[in-house]
Write a structure and sequence with these properties.
Distance between the termini: 46 Å
Number of domains: 2
Helix content: 25-40%
Number of strands: 7
Shape: elongated
Length: 174
């Protein structure tokens, strides 16, 4: 026999009635341009750093284009680059850039999120069931999810990952 639902039978949306608190890393994404500087172009034949030529290239570069940007410094060539080279570039970038990181754009995003998450007040998540939202439209680095769990584990009652309708349990305080 097939049971036909009556008007008295209610569909309960357990997701909307859940006590889960969402932690959305995308909400903490720092707005601003991301730019990368590949110093390969300033190396002799793309592989050798000659100090005099390098200094000329750094001096001649228009640093104003990096105003208020987050900047990643890297070298795509298989060259030995002394630390002072990146330090010299930093002295020219510092008046313009919001943040400078040695590495690619992924490393830049990782460093930005590490700073944001380490400064974040997590009292709103104290003793709560927290779900770390999985999907994002902005480039949230994988390390940000690791840092979020690390930080939330000290305050949350439980931590899940994904969406409320299909979450993965990660942690439950004993």
């Amino acid at each position: 026999m097939i049971k036909i639902a009556s008007l008295e039978d209610k569909i309960i949306n357990r997701v909307s009635e859940s006590k889960l608190v969402t932690f959305d890393l995308e909400a903490y994404y720092p707005e601003g341009d991301r730019m990368a500087i590949d110093i390969k172009e300033w190396l002799y034949e793309g592989i050798i750093l000659r100090e005099k030529d390098f200094r000329v290239a750094v001096t001649a570069h228009d640093w104003t284009i990096y105003r208020d940007a987050y900047v990643a410094l890297y070298c795509s060539a298989d060259a030995i680059v002394p630390a002072w080279a990146y330090m010299l570039i930093t002295t020219s970038l510092q008046p313009y850039a919001r943040k400078i990181v040695l590495g690619d754009l992924q490393a830049l995003e990782t460093v930005l999120y590490q700073r944001i998450l380490s400064d974040l007040d997590l009292n709103a998540f104290k003793d709560k069931a927290v779900i770390i939202k999985g999907c994002s439209h902005k480039p949230v680095p994988p390390d940000a999810y690791v840092q979020a769990v690390f930080n939330l584990q000290g305050v949350a009652k439980s931590i899940f990952y994904g969406e409320a309708c299909s979450s993965v349990p990660l942690f439950k305080r004993k």
